[in-house]
């Protein structure tokens, strides 16, 4: 049984050896994420412009709508094609750094060595599954709520409507639970990106069995640090992220050991995060 204090103590000890390089890795990742996230701002700006320009010609409004849709599609595609492989590379950097001095270039691990499309595929399947689990009950609930509001407008003005709205929000819980069941998939990809897609889901399910609430609480335990970082105009959070990542790296190491102890996996499937092997040039001539 692990404790949050144990993970954080181990993370601090490991991080003391490579903090500033870890900070640089996280900073570059956040900078790229922020640049890509600016697409969402442009989408909102475009939509708001369309709403305030209700008197514009229909052709102009249609152009604004098409531009907003195009920006949304591009933003989603970049998230799948760029951010997910980067996230896997960042996780690999932190896992490698537990054992040896990893290179900054590890951040781009997901783009090299024939790993790219497998990483993109598995992360996309994971996202789709979480979305489907979230919408499976939530969407019918929202549709029912909208039908009730239209058929009986009085509901909107009393407490029963908001109670039903709260209940519909609870229907998102299955997706929330699944997101923690799949929590280890990016780490598994970082360790071995050559397994079958379904195998990643089998492994993460075994690893997180009985651990999902503990993982959720571990994430919550960083809220104090994040709030403190926000008080410093948000800049402080950049210094906390390496600590969070190092802590979750310790968690994966324990979950990996758990899978080994259960006999659910082994070093042939999860070969650990070892330093790169230098090229072999043959024996020197005598």
From TrEMBL:
Record has Iron as a keyword: no
Residue ranges of the TM segments: 20-43, 63-91, 130-150, 156-177, 215-241
Superkingdom of source: Bacteria
Keywords: Membrane, Transmembrane, Transmembrane helix
Name recorded for this polypeptide: DUF975 family protein
């Amino acid at each position: 049984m692990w404790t949050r204090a144990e993970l954080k103590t181990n993370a601090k000890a490991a991080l003391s050896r490579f903090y500033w390089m870890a900070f640089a890795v996280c900073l570059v990742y956040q900078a790229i994420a922020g640049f890509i996230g600016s697409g969402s701002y442009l989408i909102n700006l475009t939509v708001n412009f369309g709403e305030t320009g209700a008197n514009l010609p229909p052709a102009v409004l249609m152009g604004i709508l098409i531009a907003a849709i195009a920006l949304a599609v591009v933003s989603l595609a970049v998230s799948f094609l760029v951010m997910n492989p980067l996230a896997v590379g960042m996780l690999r950097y932190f896992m490698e750094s537990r054992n040896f001095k990893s290179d900054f270039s590890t951040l781009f691990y997901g783009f090299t060595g024939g790993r790219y499309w497998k990483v993109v595929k598995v992360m996309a399947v994971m996202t789709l599954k979480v979305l489907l689990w979230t919408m499976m009950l939530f969407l019918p609930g929202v549709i029912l709520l909208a039908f009730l509001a239209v058929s009986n407008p009085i509901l909107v003005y009393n407490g029963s409507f908001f109670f039903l709205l709260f209940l519909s929000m609870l229907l998102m819980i299955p997706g929330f639970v699944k997101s923690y069941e799949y929590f280890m998939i990016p780490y598994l990809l970082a360790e071995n990106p050559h397994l079958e897609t379904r195998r990643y889901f089998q492994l993460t399910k075994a690893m997180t069995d009985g651990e999902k609430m503990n993982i959720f609480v571990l994430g919550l335990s960083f809220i104090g640090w994040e709030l403190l970082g926000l008080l410093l105009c948000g800049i402080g959070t950049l210094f906390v992220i390496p600590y969070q990542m190092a802590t979750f790296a310790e968690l994966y190491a324990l979950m990996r050991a758990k899978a080994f102890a259960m006999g659910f996996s082994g070093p042939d499937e999860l070969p650990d995060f070892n330093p790169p092997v230098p090229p072999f040039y043959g024996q020197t001539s005598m």
